[in-house]
Amino acid sequence: MIQKLTRTESMEMIVEREMVLTPASHQKHIKIPFVLTQAYQRLYVNFSFSPQYVDREKALVIISQVIPDYFGAENPPGRPEDFLPLENLLTFSVSHGDDYVGSRHHKATEQEVYLSAEGSSAGYLPHAVKPGNWEVQIHPHCLLSDQVQVRLMIQGGN
Amino acid sequence: MDYYAIELHAHTNHSDGGFTTEELLGSAKDFGYDILTITDHNTVAPYEEWKKNQHWSGDLLVIPGIEWTTYFGHMLVIGSKQMIDWRKAELDTIDSRISEIKDSGGIVGIAHPFSIGSPICTGCRWEFQVKDYDNVDFIELWNRVNPDESFRSRLAYEMWTDLLKKGHRISCSAGRDWHRIESEMDNTALTYIGLKELTEDGVKESLENGNFYITLGPRLQMKIEQNGRIHHLGQELRAGDAQLHVRLESILQEKLRNFGFKGERLAVIQNEEIIAEIDLKENQSREVPLTLHPGYIRLELYGEAKGEKERLLVIGNPFYVV
């Protein structure tokens, strides 16, 4: 679940999206453009996905299929179980017009980041939250569970 | 021309590293690097953080970088003036993105090309269909810990030497792929880069030209003299007579002295054929007469490692012969 923001500043909802993704989205960027009609002190992006792990039986089938490509007769891979768990890995990035602001590529299933001219969360450059065309892209580096629930919330704060 | 220890592949908690930016810089200084390229996954934010806190780095030269962490490969991009958007990288058009990076003054290296790939390590295996490898500056032959023991290093070596044999000018690098402090039991490889001056532009120029070598620890000075002129790694020579000057020096990094790396034999390789083998011990200098043919000439040092003989310790990038 996304944690509720407990900030004293006034918050304005800009994007609120819930998606159910399937392996059809595996390794395909999902673009979520949005327009800011006003400036904010900060832009907040809350992102979460579930489940973290691909079901064990399905994961073992997938792992068994791919590991011969990554090993070889001289260097056998061992048992498929040794590569468990297989993790869904979804990250996201933010851009403003042509400016790439950043991403925090890591395995957390919940991320809350903020952007501002004075400073931004880890992975993101300081960047003024000005009116204009913005975009969040979701990057499903691995999305192999039959269904993955994704929640995205973008808010402006003053 | 002096050679400096450079790390070309390091991460912070701006992506999935365990270090803060300050901790990474402190660890790099403590280990004995002269130059550090911060290459977080899909962000340059730690470099911007460092710019506001330059006292963190002391004498360490810090260079901006990013590891393009795509679905089809991980690519190190160093010193690009503009931020070229990694999200536009596609399997069969990567050459266009590489050209954009080069036009922006960036250096391009292929990280861990034979790593386990998707979906176990997403995008870690190099699958991009590169059409012109001349635009790629280096291939990371040695990655992470104990690269001397990994068959993936051998596969990367074969990829690199195949490209050299085809006439491409491409270098090899070592990348610690540093995410956190490793076990005392695990060794990591080093890259030494030749510089006239310790500046970012100097580093980029030498990375582009191939004036660097990789090692498990021992330092190897390599120069070729021809017609009274000294040539360094990556430089161009003429076919004909020349004189190789080499000198083997001790390991500087305290941790790496614990693995028993001891140089014994230098192999001189011309167009992938060994043309000379000489004994070379620590603190010893040797000169070797050469007859150069068009193509390239490069050096490898073999010796003792972890109690075993005849192990590859140092790989020098080629001198090119026209």
How many separate domains of chain A? 1
Amount of helix of chain B:
10-25%
Number of domains of chain B: 2
| CA radius of gyration of chain B | 19 Å
Helix and strand content put the structural class of chain B at: alpha+beta
Q: What CATH first level of chain A would be assigned? A: Mainly Beta
Order of helices and strands of chain B: EHEHEEHEEHEEHEEEEEEEEEEE
User: What are the secondary-structure elements of chain A, in order, as H or E?
Assistant: EEEHEEEEE
Keywords:
heterodimer; A: 158 residues; mainly beta; Jelly Rolls; four-stranded antiparallel beta sheet; B: 322 residues; alpha+beta; TIM Barrel; Immunoglobulin-like; 5 helices; globular
Outline:
Chain A has 158 residues and is mainly beta.
Can you offer a commentary on this structure?
The complex is a heterodimer of chains A (158) and B (322). With 158 residues, chain A is mainly beta. Chain A has one domain (11-52, 87-157): Jelly Rolls. Chain A has one helix at 56-70, and strands at 11-21, 30-36, 42-50, 89-96, 99-103, 110-115, 132-142, 148-157. With 322 residues, chain B is an alpha+beta fold. Chain B has 2 domains: 2-215, Alpha-Beta Barrel (TIM Barrel), CATH 3.20.20.140; 219-321, Sandwich (Immunoglobulin-like). Chain B has helices at residues 21-31, 45-51, 94-103, 151-165, 200-209, and strands at residues 2-7, 35-38, 61-69, 74-78, 107-110, 138-143, 171-175, 190-195, 212-215, 219-226, 229-231, 236-237, 240-249, 262-270, 273-279, 285-292, 295-305, 308-316, 319-321. Chain B has a 15-stranded mixed beta sheet that branches. The model of chain B has no long low-confidence stretch (mean pLDDT 98). The chains are: A mainly beta (158), B alpha+beta (322). The A-B interface holds A 26-27, 29, 62-63, 66-67, 69-70, 72, 74-75, 83, 86, 89, 91, 93, 95, 99-100, 102-107, 120, 122-126, 137, 139, 141-142, 144 and B 13-16, 40-45, 48, 69, 71, 83, 85, 87, 115-120, 122-123, 125, 151.
